[in-house]
Amino acid sequence: MRKKECVAELKPDSILKHFQNHPSVVKAFSKENLSALDVGCRVPCPLFVIYHDFNFTLLKGIELSSESDAVKSFLKDAKAENLDLKTIYDVYLKDLKLDEEDIRLGKQLVDEITFKKHFKILFNLPADWYFTKVQDTTMFDYVILSNVLHLNLEPTATTIFEGAIARLKSDGLIFVRVNHRQNPVAKKLRHRTYGEREFKKLFAGFNEILFCKDKNDNNTGFKSMIFFGSKK
Ligand SMILES: C[S@@+](CC[C@H](N)C(=O)[O-])C[C@H]1O[C@@H](n2cnc3c(N)ncnc32)[C@H](O)[C@@H]1O
User: Fold this and answer.
1) Taking CA 42 as the corner, what is the angle to CA 39 and CA 45, rounded to the nearest 5 degrees?
2) pTM of the model
3) Using alpha carbons only, how large is the chain's radius of gyration in Å?
4) Residue ranges lining ligand 1, Cβ < 6 Å
5) Which of 8, 30, 38, 171 has its CA 20 to 30 A from that of 73?
6) Residue pLDDT, tens place only, 148-178
7) pLDDT tens, position by position, 195-215
8) Cis omega before residue 155 (within 30°)?
């Protein structure tokens, strides 16, 4: 299996864009009726992208905060607080720009009713609660844990990680992004960070498609680490 290490800043959606021609991704996402779960999704931009690039019919998100707080936080990070967006559907319409190739292929953004048929975003729900208390046995072809594990203390972080793995189909793909130990902002905010060995140990039972470290903004170290792969 091809392994690739990169040090460039890549967002989850562009990572998938970048790797969607990888044989493992093509194989995993070449079916009909695919399902994806984005844990701690805030505004689930990676789900918007895969909805248009593959045949996903269920795109579920779990988010601790309310929809309006999630959108506000997203806009703040994107330095776009002046935009009058209230819902994730508003962000979807604004954020997902189809390129010429997409349009040539006949892709178009969907109306709100269609959007809500496929996107099931559960706000005000702690992920550990979802995994342990909610009666839902859906298994997913793709699970995303992006920048969420390091916001939770133990044992909650482990409950979330194990819950997510348990919901991943045997041939599904998982994407996990955490703060690197060298992340200066995380240190300041006292968010948890991960060492490389500790992070890689989490994926002992996985096939690695990508392990990626991205440089922090002042180029003095790494900001986060990403694992993208499948169960063995
Ligand atoms: C830093 S944001 C990351 C958002 C998105 N996943 C990304 O990578 O851009 C972390 C999000 O995870 C949510 N979150 C943190 N702990 C959570 C938990 N235990 N259950 C559900 N959501 C959680 C936060 O509310 C926040 O919206």
Assistant:
1) 90
2) 0.92
3) 17
4) 40-42, 62-65, 70, 73, 126-128, 146-148, 151-152
5) 8
6) 998 999 999 999 999 999 999 999 999 999 9
7) 999 999 999 989 999 898 888
8) yes
